[in-house]
């Protein structure tokens, strides 16, 4: 097991998101599964982090708990300086609205709204008007200026995912969480989307956390965290598809000291 | 495949219950109608059977078939006392008693009539057999003037005990009595729930102007003779026009006649049950359409795996049949409970009917059950047909609903059906006076508008949703988009509400218009300044009232109008008025168009021109008027008048009236006096608590009050249809929430609060409800205007649209829409966000 440097209180202001001994269980009794088994990670500001792991390793659960979509059973999560596991539904909703951006595998756009309305939806829900200059920057970055009036059903998969990314960026969130953002896309569209996510980090200083099982997708990140059986088992800086694949192969081998449940 | 159907039904319990309820309510209403009328029949039969207790033969004046039982203030033609003596002398007669009946109202200790709906007065019968019906007596029967026995019900309500002083009005005039006895009636506490006052024979004869005469004679046979033989023996000594009837037969035939008269209630309630089922059919149709839409992949998969179209069709109809059977069975049980509810509802609106026992007619209940199942299956046929059109390849594709809903075929078809419906409706109203044609036209027009619905659902949702887009957080705008995304669903959901509301609006337009005509007739003719009439329905006022008014200083003139319920040229329940030909034109302008007013004095009949036109009568023609047991008069039409004012469409002179009907109580006294005479009039009327003094507006209101009651009753009955339509909205929203699970989850994920989510669903519900309300109001105004025009055209075409009420209806519909959103919004808020986002 690889332990990460313990974040000090002073450093927490520099990290965009942080977890401390995060535990999440499903089921009860004999059939209980620890989806997260004491995860402590730190996501620095302006970083692009990929979370990898085999099916059932807990990577999606980690993302859901960090993003305030699901409740952890134990441990803490900070978004910026705020601890969120003690928040009520209303506070969490506000947190998601104002400080977190989401990109999902299935795009999850509202079919009744145009691309433009989908992008500004988080602001509309909050009852705020968009910062026009920022909106224009975002629309320009995702390259959809000429598609804004279209409905999702009139856009390709790649275009829909770019709308979703623009929606995630529009409220200048502390973190954008992307859950298998290329899972429903062909390789060309995947490349576009991953390039875009990387540019979000490099050009706008956005913090991005991406869950993926694709080594190529993971290689776009600055750092890759590997999860297995609910624990962070490894990490990799400046990954390439090959190095990610190697690390995954290495992790795939049974090791002594593994807990039950494999 | 059928097992899959059942599992599908049981998997969605909320939907099952809601959909089933939509049909169960309509079926219940129909079953309730049959149970109600059957119970009423049984109750009346046993009531009249009780009335025959102890009596074997009844002697009375012959009443021709169709004569009005117990209606009007006439009662039956009296029989001379000499006949009683003749009967008593016959062998085989154990006892014979002359009975006097009339109308009297018991006043409570506060001087106001008891809240019973009618009052029957009887004379105490002589002879033990006839007294047996008066059960559980306390005190003693009346033996002299100033003595009265009252029923247990009135004694309880008025807190009267034996020995108490009591005031009773006869013809509106209060008279003091002492309560000498209190009695039950058979197994009941009073006759059919009304008040019963019993006087000794002499007092009753004096009170009702029947000195030396009786209303009927009751005879009991000795052991030695059968009632049939005694009846024949008595019949031989009776003069012509008087008949002897076996008491059992006579009471049974009275019960039959009354039941016959009340049969309209079956049609009346049945019509509303039909409306409820019709609206329920919309809900079924819509629910199945949505379910088929959501199951397209599953159906396509079945087709891919080799299911034939017929199997798909049968599977959907099978689901509908199971649902229909469950719902109709629940409805039938509901209906049995509802029967008493209908009786209570009628009582609330002043129509008290004696339901003493509950009777469940197997045929009627089975009919309601079959109707419920059939409606469900029929409503599911179009969606089932659409299910068979699902191509196997659709298993692999995402279904994108056509958002426009536009098709030239729909437009043309809808317009043709609507136009045909309107044409039939107008033909039914104006050309053929056919209720069936009108109803078919109305149903066709509703269906036509429903076909057209998806075409204007989008623009309507856009326009009506406009104010909601101001809601913060985009919830209103999203709601509007959601209402617009599937115009077929929105319009079908709104259509159910449209039907119920259109009928309510149509009836209220009709009633406002007719009320306006009545009010114009009474207030437009300003000659009569005051009206005095009986406070309780058919008791009449004594001529002493007019005499008292005439003595009031300031009163210029007073005239009495007599009124009876008669059968005119075969149509029952027509009002015929007796007026003073010399005085009447001083009170109202009749506007004679043919013949003359003076013909009244020679015994002729004046008919309103509108009535004469519709019957194709001209002056000089002879008209048969049946006055119950007083027989049939053949009267010549002496003239036609156009302005009935406060009068009925048939006028005869007071002299003819009294001679032909024997009625000696007035219906209304018309008074010409300055308004300053009001106080003096009121004090002159103090001895007559049963008479009420009204000015023009008050009289117009009182004449229109019945219409108001009918409007309220009809509205109350149509509210059920509206409730069913609301169930439809709930159902649609629940299905939509399930369908949009991922969208709702996303909205929550990106920061929409639960409250905002609820607001969004409520806003969509309000938009759908208001679309239904607006369409319903528009159709209702059209339908109501047509009805009002048809009804009032003979008296000056009048269409009054009660704008205030219409606004209230639409606002109530919007509020009801919010109410309908409660459950779906709760469900959406409770939804697991993660499952919502990740569900595929």
Describe the structure.
The complex is a heterodimer of chains A (262) and B (840). With 262 residues, chain A is α/β, with parallel strands linked by helices. Chain A has one domain (46-68, 88-252): P-loop containing nucleotide triphosphate hydrolases (Rossmann fold). Chain A contains nine helices and eleven strands. In chain A, strand 10 (223-228) and strand 11 form a beta hairpin. Chain B is built from 25 helices and 24 strands. In chain B, the strands form four sheets. In chain B, strands 4, 5, 6, 7, 8, 9, 10 and 11 form an eight-stranded mixed sheet that branches. In chain B, helix 2 (13-51) packs antiparallel against helix 21. The chains are: A alpha/beta (262), B alpha+beta (840).
Flag low-confidence runs of chain B: 68-74
Question: What assembly state would you assign to the polypeptide chains in this entry?
Answer: heterodimer
**How many domains make up the 3D coordinates of chain B?**
3
What fraction strand of chain B? 15-25%
Q: Judging by the overall fold, what is the CATH architecture of chain A?
A: 3-Layer(aba) Sandwich
Helix content of chain B: 55-70%
Strand order of the largest sheet of chain A: 7-8-9-4-10-11
**Over all CA atoms, what is the radius of gyration of chain A?**
18 Å
Q: How would a textbook summarize the main sheet of chain B?
A: 8 strands, mixed
Distance between the termini of chain B: 25 Å
Largest sheet of chain A: 6 strands, mixed
Strand portion of chain A, in percent?
15-25%
Q: Tell me the number of structural domains of chain A.
A: 1
Based on secondary structure, the structural category of chain B is alpha+beta
Total strand segments of chain A: 11
Estimate the global geometry of chain A from the Cα principal axes.
globular
The count of β-strands of chain B is: 24
The CATH topology of chain A corresponds to Rossmann fold
Assigned CATH class of chain A: Alpha Beta
């Amino acid at each position: 097991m690889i332990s990460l440097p313990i974040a000090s209180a002073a450093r927490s202001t520099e990290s965009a998101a942080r977890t401390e001994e995060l535990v999440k269980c499903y089921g009860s009794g004999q059939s209980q599964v620890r989806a997260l088994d004491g995860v402590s990670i730190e996501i620095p500001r302006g970083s692009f982090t990929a979370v990898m792991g085999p099916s059932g390793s807990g990577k999606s659960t980690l993302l859901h708990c960090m993003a305030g979509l699901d409740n952890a059973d134990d441990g803490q999560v900070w978004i910026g300086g705020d601890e969120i596991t003690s928040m009520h539904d209303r506070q969490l909703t506000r947190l998601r609205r104002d400080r977190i951006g989401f990109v999902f595998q299935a795009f999850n756009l509202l079919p009744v709204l145009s691309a433009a309305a989908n992008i500004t939806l988080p602001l509309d829900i909050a009852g705020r008007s968009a910062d026009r200059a920022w909106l224009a920057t975002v629309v320009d970055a995702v390259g959809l200026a000429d598609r804004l009036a279209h409905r999702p059903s009139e856009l390709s998969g790649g275009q829909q995912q770019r709308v979703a990314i623009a929606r995630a960026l529009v409220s200048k969130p502390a973190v954008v969480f992307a859950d298998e953002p290329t899972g429903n896309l062909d390789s060309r569209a995947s490349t576009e989307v991953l390039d875009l996510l990387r540019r979000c980090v490099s050009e706008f200083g956005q913090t991005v956390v991406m869950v993926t099982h694709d080594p190529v997708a993971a290689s776009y990140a600055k750092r890759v965290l590997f999860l297995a059986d609910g624990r962070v088992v490894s990490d990799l800086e400046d990954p390439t598809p090959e190095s990610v694949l190697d690390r995954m192969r290495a992790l795939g081998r049974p090791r002594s000291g593994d807990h039950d449940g494999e | 495949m059928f097992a899959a159907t059942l599992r599908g039904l049981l998997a969605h319990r909320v939907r099952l219950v809601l959909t089933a309820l939509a049909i169960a309510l309509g079926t219940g209403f129909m079953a309730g109608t049959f149970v109600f009328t059957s119970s009423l029949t049984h109750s009346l039969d046993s009531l009249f059977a009780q009335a025959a207790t102890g009596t074997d033969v009844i002697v009375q004046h012959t009443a021709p078939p169709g004569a009005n039982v117990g209606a009007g203030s006439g009662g039956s033609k009296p029989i001379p006392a000499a006949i009683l003596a003749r009967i008593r002398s016959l062998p085989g007669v154990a006892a014979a008693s002359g009975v006097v009946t009339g109308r009297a109202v018991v006043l409570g200790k506060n001087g106001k009539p008891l809240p019973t709906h009618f009052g029957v007065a009887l004379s105490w019968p002589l002879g033990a057999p006839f007294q047996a019906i008066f059960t559980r007596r306390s005190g003693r029967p009346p033996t002299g003037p100033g003595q009265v026995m009252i029923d247990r019900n009135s004694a309880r309500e008025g807190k009267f005990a034996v020995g108490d002083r009591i005031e009773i009005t006869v013809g509106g005039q209060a008279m003091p009595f002492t309560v000498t006895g209190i009695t039950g009636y058979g197994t009941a506490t009073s006759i059919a729930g009304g008040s019963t006052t019993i006087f000794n024979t002499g007092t009753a004869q004096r009170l009702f102007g029947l000195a030396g005469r009786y209303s009927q004679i009751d005879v009991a046979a000795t052991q030695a003779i059968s009632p049939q033989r005694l009846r024949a023996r008595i019949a031989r000594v009776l003069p012509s026009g008087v008949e002897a009837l076996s008491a059992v037969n006579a009471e049974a035939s009275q019960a039959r006649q009354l039941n016959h008269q009340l049969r309209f209630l079956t049609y009346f309630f049945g019509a509303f049950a039909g409306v409820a089922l019709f609206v329920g059919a919309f809900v079924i149709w819509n629910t199945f359409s949505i379910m088929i839409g959501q199951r397209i992949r599953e159906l396509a998969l079945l087709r891919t795996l080799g299911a034939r179209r017929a199997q798909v069709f049968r599977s959907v109809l099978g689901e509908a049949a199971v649902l229909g059977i469950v719902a109709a069975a629940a409805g039938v049980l509901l209906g049995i409970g509802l029967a008493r509810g209908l009786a209570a509802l009628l009582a609330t609106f002043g129509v008290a009917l004696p339901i003493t026992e509950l009777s469940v007619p197997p045929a009627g209940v089975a009919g309601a059950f079959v109707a419920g199942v059939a409606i469900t299956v029929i409503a599911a046929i179009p969606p089932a047909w659409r299910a068979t059109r699902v191509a196997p390849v659709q298993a692999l594709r995402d279904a994108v609903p056509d958002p426009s809903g536009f098709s030239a075929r729909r437009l043309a078809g809808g317009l043709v059906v609507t136009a045909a419906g309107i044409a039939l409706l107008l033909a039914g109203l104006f050309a053929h006076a056919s209720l069936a044609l009108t109803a078919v036209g109305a149903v066709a027009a509703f269906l036509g508008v429903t076909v057209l619905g998806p075409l204007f659902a989008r623009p309507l949702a856009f326009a009506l949703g406009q104010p909601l887009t101001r809601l913060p957080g985009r919830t209103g705008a999203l709601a509007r988009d959601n209402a617009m995304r599937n115009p077929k669903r929105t319009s079908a959901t709104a259509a159910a509400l449209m039907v119920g509301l259109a009928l309510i609006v149509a009836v209220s337009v009709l009633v406002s218009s007719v009320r306006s005509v009545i009010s114009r007739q009474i207030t437009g003719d300003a000659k009569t300044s005051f009206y005095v009439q009986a406070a309780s329905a058919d008791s009449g006022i004594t001529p002493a009232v007019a005499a008292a008014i005439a003595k009031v200083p300031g009163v210029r003139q007073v005239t009495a109008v007599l009124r009876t319920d008669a059968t005119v040229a075969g149509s029952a329940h027509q009002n015929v008025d007796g007026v003073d030909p010399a005085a009447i034109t001083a009170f109202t302008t009749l506007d004679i168009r043919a013949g003359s007013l003076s013909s009244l004095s020679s015994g002729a009949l004046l008919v309103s021109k509108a009535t004469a036109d519709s019957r194709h009568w001209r002056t000089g023609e002879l008209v048969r008027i049946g006055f119950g047991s007083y027989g049939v008069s053949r009267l010549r039409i002496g003239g036609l008048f156009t302005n009935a004012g406060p009068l009925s469409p048939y006028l005869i002179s007071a002299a003819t009236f009294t001679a032909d009907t024997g009625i000696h109580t007035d219906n209304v006294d018309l008074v010409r006096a300055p308004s300053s005479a009001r106080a003096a009039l009121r004090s002159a009327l103090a001895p007559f608590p049963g008479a009420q003094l009204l000015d023009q507006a008050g009289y117009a209101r009182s004449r229109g009050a019945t219409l108001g009651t009918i409007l309220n009753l009809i509205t109350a009955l149509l509210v059920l249809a509206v409730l069913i339509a609301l169930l439809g909205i709930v159902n649609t929203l629940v299905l939509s929430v399930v369908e949009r699970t991922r969208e709702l989850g996303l909205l929550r994920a990106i920061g929409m609060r639960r409250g905002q989510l609820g607001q969004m669903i409520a806003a969509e519900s309000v938009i759908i409800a208001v679309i239904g309300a607006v369409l319903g109001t528009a159709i209702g105004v059209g339908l109501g205007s047509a009805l009002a025009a048809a009804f009032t055209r003979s008296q000056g075409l009048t269409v009054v649209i009660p704008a205030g009420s219409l606004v209230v209806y639409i606002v109530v519909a919007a509020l009801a829409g919010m109410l309908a959103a409660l459950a779906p919004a709760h469900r959406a808020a409770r939804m697991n966000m993660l499952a919502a986002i990740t569900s595929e």
